[in-house]
Structure formats: C-alpha cells, structure tokens
Amino acid sequence: MINKQLEQITKNIIERSKPTREAYLERITNHKGKIQRKDLGCANLAHAYASIPNYMKEKIKENKESNFAIISAYNDMLSAHQPFKNYPDILKQELFKNRAFGQLAGGTPAMCDGITQGYEGMELSLFSRDVIAMSVAIALSHNVFDGAFYLGVCDKIVPGLLIGALSFGHLPSIFIPSGPMTSGISNDEKSKMRQLFAAGEISRDKLLESEMKSYHDVGTCTFYGTANSNQMLMEFMGLHLPNSAFINPNTPLREALVKQAAAHMAQHQVKPIGELLSEKNIINAIIGLMATGGSTNHTIHLVAIARAAGIIINWDDFDALSSITPLLARVYPNGKADVNQFQAAGGLAFIINELLENGLLYEDVETIMGRGMRDYTKEPFLINGKLHYQEGTKTSQEESILRSIKNPFSQDGGVKILRGNIGRAVIKTSAIKEEHQIIQAPAIVFHSQQEFLQRFQNKELQKDFIAVLPYQGARANGMPELHKLTPSLGVLQDQGFKVALITDGRMSGASGKVPAAIHISPEALLNGNIAKIQDGDMLILDAKNGRLEALIDEQEWKNRKPSKFDKKETFGYGRELFAGFREQSSNAETGAMSFGGYFK
C-alpha cells in the first residue's frame, strides 16, 4: 500500500507536468519514424562503417541486426573513469556474441571537482554538465544506432549523459558504472587531518600523505558525495543492472556485469529511455536521495534531468518527500562509513526492499529489466564463473551504517528548503547536530572564498557569525562549489563559535556538519535579496523550522539597494568560452541549465 502523502505528491507532479510530458512523448514518438540506419544513403552508411572490421561489415550492411552506440566519459585523469578504458571492447565483443554490434560513438569530457575545488577551473564545473549533454547529442546525431550504453560516474557526468540521452528518448539506454575504489584511510581520519591543517597544526606534507591514503586507487571516491549519489539514483530510476553501483573496479564480478549489460540489451526489449523514465521513476530517485542522505547537488541536477523528460519538479517536492522519507543510512559525510562498508552492510538492495515493504517507493515502474523495482532488491554474485542474482539481505548487517524503517537514524531525509526574506535555499541537515540547526548571528559578507580563507588565517573570525557569499550563482561565475570553506568553518564550530554559511553557490555532495544555506534562489545576479545583506545585519538560519531571514525592519529591507556585482575575471582557464552558458542560465530552482528556456 503506497503512502497516502506520497500518492498526493505524485498526483501533483503528474498534473503539473501533463502538458510538457505529453509534448515530450509526442516528440520522441514522431522521431521514431524519421531517418534510421536502413534509410541512409549508401555513401552515408559507408562512412559509418568504414572503420569497423571486415567480418562485421558483411553482417552490419544487411541492417538486420541491432547496432548500439557506446558513449564514454573515459579518461585516466579521473580515478572513477579510468576503469572505462576497456569497457567498449568488452561490450562490442559481447554484443557480437549476441548477434548485435557496438561502436564507440563518442566521448564526453569529465572533470573532477575534487581537483578544481577552490580554484578557477571550478567555475566550469556546473556547465560541464551541459557540454556533456551536447556531446551526447553529437555522438548520436549520425542516426545509425538502435540504442546506447553510457559510461560515466562522477558529479556532472551522469546528469549530463542522462540529459543527452533524453534528447534521444526514442533509444533504449543502459548506464554502466565503474564502481568505488577500495577503502583507504577512514573518512573520519581524513576530515580530522584537514581540520588540523586548517588550524595550522600539521604540515602540508602530512596533509598530502593523508589525502593520498584516502584517494589511492582507481574507482570512485569512497565518501557518499555526488558521484556515489549519482550511482544510487541510476539504480532507483532503473537504469543500471540491479545493484551494480558499488562493485569495485577490476574484479571478475565487475567485468561480468559489463558483459551482462551488453547481453541484456541485445537479448531483451529494453524500453526507450524517454518512455521508461516517468514521473514515478523521478520520484523514486528523490526518495532514494532522502533515504540515503545523498548530495544536495541533486536538488539542481534532478530538476534538470526531469525537465529534459518533460517532467516538472521543484524544491517544494524535495521538501515534501524529505518529510515522509526516513533516513536509513549513515555514510560519510553523514556518518563514518564509506560506500564499501555501506555495500557490505546491505547496500541499496536492503534500502530498496525497506522502502518497497513500507509503501515509500513505487514498484510499478519500468526499468531496463522490465516492469517493477523488485529486481533491485537482488544482488549479483559470480558463482562458478557465471553471474547469478540472489535476494539481498533483509536485515542490516551493521546498525551504525544501515537501519530499518522501524528504527531510522532520523524520521526525515535531511534535505530541507529554507524560506524567508533572503530567498529560498537548500540545506542538508542529516550531518548537522541538533544544537547547530538554529543559528542567529551577525553577517560577515565575503567577496570570495579566498577572502574568507585569508581572514581565517589572520585569526579575524574567532566569533559568532554567518558567512555570506553572494554572486556565486550560475549567472555570476558558474556556481562553483565552496567546499574549501568546510574545514575552516568546522574548526570555528569546534572552538565553540556559532557559525553558518549563506550563499547562492554550491557546497558539494560533501556538505557536512556546519549549517549551510546554499543555492539561494533567486541568485544575487538575478536580483536576489542575498545581495542586500550587509556586514553586521542580524540573520537567522533555522533549519528546524525552514526559516532564513535578515532580521531587518521590513520597510528598510524593501528600500535597501543590493551590493554591486564586482565582475570577476572571466578570462583564463577557459572561462571566456563559457560566457554564453552563464548569460543564458536558468536559476537553481529550475536546474541552472544554459538551455533551460527550451524545457518549459
């Protein structure tokens, strides 16, 4: 029996989305009848097949068998994407065994927020998602494919791939992960070392030694940030093979799952992704985000993904779904465990089963496996060299990491919407202690992360305050993450000061123990009131009651002029190439997309 509140939220989203969803489905239905491989001219086909082996040419030119695109975000700069190097060959070989073909149709860029964090390159990060979506469109524009495989993991890569895939919604699609790296030092120890360095108590050499013990091998970073939240979402949407998200790279089981993805696509009628991804799939994804304490970045990405499929969701939906979804997982930064320990404790199979059994997840949705989410309560095993699925555990193997709905870590999902005269904002509360969830303190306005860090180093910030960083939105400078501030704010909080952050920028999937009102909407450059805040203004950030306000006389606040936009340097690191993206971006609540105006 589905939860009544969930039914009502779903009804609201379906009704709100009806015109745009119907228009989207009509577009992809019409596209099915347009030019396909068999209709292309001989010269066009010859170009498409020129590079493939002769033994395949003889078969593919008959146009009787399916030909699948492979779109990869492989590079060996990113640990999470390095394992994809050999996937295309594995997929092509397995497809050929199943009387089908595969071609590496295109690559997409993939950048790492962990590398660019705090530097100019981070200003390209958010819009790299849009570039990736356009890269997918270019790769699929040749019109010779019957479906597609998408190889990607990290922060903007999976949302970009999915938005691009939805622009070719008439094609069946399967997403294939690479898996997390094996565990290094604990996330708790890593966090402590960062704070010690921020406090000047350890050397840079010691910090680097610690970081390299944490990020030490191929695979996704092991904390539960945006990258691993992406993989969770793909499972909850039904776009992965079941429980393939958190299998380590370069293992026999991981290779078997890659092969199975190819065999499954060739042997089964996987539904076109635009038809498969319904309102209920999107709602399942949001519930998964809340139940696992996932990344705040998805309050932007999921909005953009949904709009690409004609589905209109908003922050109030996140708030409403968070209020009815208990928190069932504690994975860093919401706890001490990493994703490998999460997987060992029962992982997504356990969580999906709990939600289904308690009416908090839609079972009757299409997935790449067919109809129904029950497939995702099963786990893969390699037995005598063959892939088998078995029912996942129905009890948590470690109560400090995973819990049942009868004994959750929290009654809500820990992502809330704040409202008030400053604007609307997102806050992640699942890692914030109760005594820090209401902060009333004077504002200190900073013009950059660097200014904040310098003043911290100068020991000017040993007091109660709320840091305000305006003009960090998509229109201003590409909406960078401000995660560099976390260790310093954490030090101040541990010293007993009441501190918080308010910004129209992002704070990353690693949002932690310091209260942060992020994604302020409207952003400062779109006449948002965050730009009105001045040093010394008394502010209140109340996560318990969803309140974000400047405690200023109403008339004075109304008449106050915003601070001027100190237009930052936009040349260097390729930032000038993204000027058009910034100028056209929609606000954070509608997905911060450079082409958002087309998804109405």
From TrEMBL:
Recorded GO MF terms: 4 iron, 4 sulfur cluster binding; metal ion binding; phosphogluconate dehydratase activity
Biological pathway: Carbohydrate metabolism; Entner-Doudoroff pathway
Protein name, UniProt field: Phosphogluconate dehydratase
Binding site for [4Fe-4S] cluster: 154, 221
Organism whose genome encodes this protein: Helicobacter apodemus
Cofactor: [4Fe-4S] cluster
Lineage of producing organism: Bacteria, Pseudomonadati, Campylobacterota, Epsilonproteobacteria, Campylobacterales
EC number in record: 4.2.1.12
Xref: InterPro entries: 6-phosphgluc_deHydtase, Dihydro-acid_dehy_C, DiOHA_6PGluconate_deHydtase_CS, ILV_EDD_C, ILV_EDD_N, IlvD/EDD_N
